[in-house]
Fold:
Amino acid sequence: MWEHNLQAIEFLWNDRGEHGLSLMHYGDWCDLLDKVGVAGRGESVWMSFALARALRLVAEIADATGDADIAVLCRQRFAALQEKILAHGWDGEWFLAAINDDGMAIGSASANEGSMFINLKTEMGARN
Structure:
């Protein structure tokens, strides 16, 4: 189980787009966003949050099991991903839902429609 989780984390870490956020592919939790990344460039802020959370949890488990190298790696990756999320996923008022294949922010406070997506208020902005 542990090795499987490490492989999943590695896959997700390497499956990120030009902004360092998780690639969207054919969708994430929001069915409305199912065509945002079909060309392979769209990035999901929510999936990036999920990866960040997984990195934190795996680091804690690695600490508990004495796997210091994995714990350090996951914490380094969390910090790098947090930086990318704050730089590219935060629009100044709230977190975006995604960045589509064409580089357009989805769910921005400045959008005329579709500006608010549920579940995007998060602790990611807290630098702890």
About this structure: Residues 2-26+40-113 form one domain. Residues 62 and 68 are 6 Å apart (CA to CA). The chain has one domain: 2-26+40-113.
